[in-house]
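hi! just following up on the protien thing from before. the input was this:
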Amino acid sequence: MSANTRVLYVITDLLTGGVPLHLRRLCSAMGERGYDSAVACLAPPGPVSELLQADDVPVTHFGARRAWDLRVIWRLSQLIRREKPDLVHCLLFHANIAGRLAGALARFPSPRLLCEIQTVEIERRWHLIVDGLTQELCGCVIGNSSAVVDHLAQHAHIQRHRLALVRGGIDVAAIEAAPKLPRSTWSLPPDGPLVLWVGRLDPVKGLDDLIEAMVVVGRESNAHLALVGDGEYRRPIEELIERRQVGDRVTLLGRRDDVGAILKAADVFVFPSYTEGMPNALLEAMAAGLPVVASDILACREVITHERTGLLVSVRNSKALADAILRLFADPEAAARLGEAARQHVRDALRIEACFDAYETLYRRTLGVVAAPVCDG
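and the predicted 3d structure came back as:
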């Protein structure tokens, strides 16, 4: 691939979260492979903006203050006209739609405009309708798991030949290299089992169920729950913690840059989401060798084999969550076996290098560098 192959990444926002951080890693990896990356963000600057700029990745912000700021589409079209990228790769729903419309305005070749979805959308069905109606304005729609790809085909009615699977992965080496620090580093109790959750504070993450489960777990053990992450749902979670009187059992750590170290301080990782794509936080926990309790949804079943690499429990079931957590506390040998099997599975099958290889293959096919179908959905 020519060293001056230029990719413009378009993303909805650069707040700290799974997709923006994934984009940062992707820009770095593609840079090492001879691609010049630039980022266009629909929203005002966020914390990941600074990280990208520190990596010498140019970032343009359009400052949208609401979900549908039509001025952004015009500005993005002008940026595409001016910069003339070889590829445009959009991530997240609003960026995908803005990219498709801006690409059409700029007369950018639609086969070289790629869109990516990283979650199984269940909250906003109209997203799926709009995705389906505008699919011909891009060359390919990428899903990061089979669950996402199948969902887009069945519910957004995106044609199979337009779908591509680029399975997510995890930087195993980074997790393994994280230091093991005492819990006092985060003002957590030094004794008793530590249950951990990591992600964006959002209603679809099942945090209400997790708090309810901790009410039961707290009666049977001296366990403590740490929640790592932030989001608009923080206040309702704080109110639920207060209402259920588990403030002495739950700590909100907020957004952290040392998640790898926190994982090594924990005993159990719990992930009760209602919907996901390829959950990075779950992969990180598995890479750290933690026994995992996760909701029995398609995305989690794709990476966890029940009773072999983790425990799957029914969705929206706080009692099942509590029972699974207490089961792991009661049988530490079984918990250790599950954690080690999870670590081995991620190391063997879900390394981040394979994910970047798949992106590069897709880019090369899109640009006609290799003779193969553009999409492998």
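The radius of gyration is 21 Å.
The domain at 172-349 is CATH 3.40.50.2000 (Rossmann fold).
cheers
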